[in-house]
TrEMBL record:
It comes from the Bacteria. InterPro entries: ABC_transp_permease, LivM-like. The keyword Cytoplasm does not apply. It comes from Neobacillus bataviensis LMG 21833. Keywords: Cell membrane, Membrane, Transmembrane, Transmembrane helix. It is a multi-pass membrane protein. The chain crosses the membrane at residues 12-31, 37-54, 61-79, 85-106, 111-130, 150-171, 178-196, 231-249, 280-303, 309-326. GO terms for molecular function: branched-chain amino acid transmembrane transporter activity. PANTHER family: HIGH-AFFINITY BRANCHED-CHAIN AMINO ACID TRANSPORT PROTEIN BRAE, HIGH-AFFINITY BRANCHED-CHAIN AMINO ACID TRANSPORT SYSTEM PERMEASE. This is Putative branched-chain amino acid ABC transporter permease. Pfam families: BPD_transp_2 (PF02653). GO terms for cellular component: plasma membrane.
Length: 431
């Protein structure tokens, strides 16, 4: 049996056939059983199976694109649960993007941030204020609310404004480490929320605790984006951009600098790593992804208020990073997806099932013990179990392996003994 399993792991054809059959069966199951949450989750699980195959990265991206762009929306579109499925998929994409941003700060740079939701709030209010009549209270020029076409510009505006706030957060915490850093970032997140909650006087900018309602929906080619199935594709494009950018940063010079600072600041500084620049870039880049998704969240919900940006949300995103594996891009994607689906679908469906049993008289469960109301306790237990038995997360971070002989040879070539178009690191990765 073990020999057969080892042969399967090395055989790409067998993996491809199994994956094709699995995707076909789960897609057909979702198409025929439109209200089956199990079929929906099993189809999403095909992406996890795809990750463990031996296909080239380009092949994996193409297959994942076919599943996410075509199969998932099409197979779920023939039933009443279509928009609810797309709502879950959209929120999964939003939380994955935020978790990847926090992973840069916590997982790669080693800077514990408990106020990361503040950047999400900044992005949401950046669009919410100008996409409603609220901006008329303090803007001496212009006509508000802005049209839905401005949404696409505000994705970039929210990105840059959140990055600016990331730098503003990074400046006072450059000399703070460990628990003190966590306290400072926690305070920053709460200050931002309280400011938005009280910024309705003496000049009404955010409308305070009442929030901003009737946010203008995005518009493209005369079509208003008001359904989750439409926002699904917007989130998917931003998520692909986020994953690509984070992967490029991970193995770049700045990415290696983040990891060096995470391991030992003194040693990193001794090796020439600029601590101030490196930390500020981590805060700014991580915050920018959250700011973009904040703009999308405000447009999707059509309502923004301070209660959506509490400390509990920051902790939830941090748990996603820890659960998946700090510093691991695939791990963070899996951790965010598991947490979001567990919260929005699994626990909700279990609660509905138990309520039906209770209504039918099979047995009675106290309302306070329903799974949907005990989700925080369940998340806490999961975190404790993983801290005890799998502290590195679901998919731990993997460092690239280099061939020492090739690196030595490449260093000689770089010094002028021989000529080559490739760098030593590029050659070592090919071996």
């Amino acid at each position: 049996m073990k020999a057969l399993w080892n042969h399967y792991k090395q055989n790409r054809v067998a993996q491809g056939v199994f994956l094709l059959i699995y995707i076909g069966v789960t897609s057909l199951g979702l198409f025929l059983a439109q209200k089956s949450v199990t079929a929906f989750l099993l189809l999403l699980a095909s992406l996890l199976l795809l990750y463990f195959t031996n296909f080239k990265n380009l092949t994996k991206w193409v297959i994942a694109g076919v599943v996410l762009v075509f199969l998932l929306p099409f197979t779920a579109s023939n039933g009443d649960g279509y928009q609810s499925y797309m709502e879950v998929a959209t929120l999964v994409g939003i939380y994955i993007s935020m978790a990847l941003g926090l992973n840069i700060v916590v997982g790669m740079a080693g800077l514990l941030d408990l106020g990361f939701i503040a950047f999400f709030a900044v992005g949401a209010y950046t669009y919410g204020i100008f996409a409603t009549a609220q901006a008329n209270n303090f803007m001496p020029f212009g006509h508000f609310p802005l049209s839905g076409e401005s949404f696409w510009i505000f994705i970039l505006v929210g990105c840059f404004i959140a990055a600016l706030f990331g730098v503003l957060l990074g400046i006072p915490v450059l000399r703070v480490k460990g628990d003190y850093l966590a306290i400072v970032t926690l305070g920053f997140g709460e200050i931002i929320r309280i400011i938005f909650n009280n910024l309705d006087r003496p000049l009404n900018i955010t409308n305070g605790a009442m929030g901003l309602s009737s946010v203008t929906p995005p518009r493209l080619f005369g079509i208003d984006f008001i359904y989750p199935s439409q926002f699904y594709y917007v989130v998917l494009i931003i998520l692909i951009f986020t994953i690509f950018t984070v992967r490029r940063f991970e193995h770049s010079k700045i990415g290696r600098s983040w990891k060096a600072v995470r391991e030992n600041e003194i040693a990193a500084q001794a090796m020439g790593v600029p601590l101030v620049k490196t930390k500020l870039m981590a805060f700014a880049i991580g915050a920018s992804f959250s700011g973009m998704m904040g703009v999308v969240f405000a447009a999707k919900q059509a309502f923004v208020d301070p209660t959506s940006f509490t400390l509990l949300e920051s902790i939830t995103i941090l748990v996603m990073v820890i659960l998946g594996g700090m510093g691991s891009v695939p791990g963070v994607i899996l951790g965010a997806a598991v947490m979001t689906i567990l919260n929005l679908q699994v626990l909700t469906e279990i609660t509905n099932w138990l309520n039906q049993l209770s209504t039918s008289g099979a047995f009675s469960i106290p309302d306070a013990l329903s799974p949907s109301k005990m989700q925080r306790m369940i998340f806490g237990l999961l975190l404790i179990l993983f801290a005890l038995y799998r502290p590195q997360g679901l998919l731990p971070a993997k460092n690239r392996k280099y061939n020492e002989a090739v690196l030595r040879k490449g260093s000689k070539e770089a010094s002028g003994e021989t000529s080559s178009d490739q760098s030593p690191i590029e050659k070592a990765q090919e071996v």
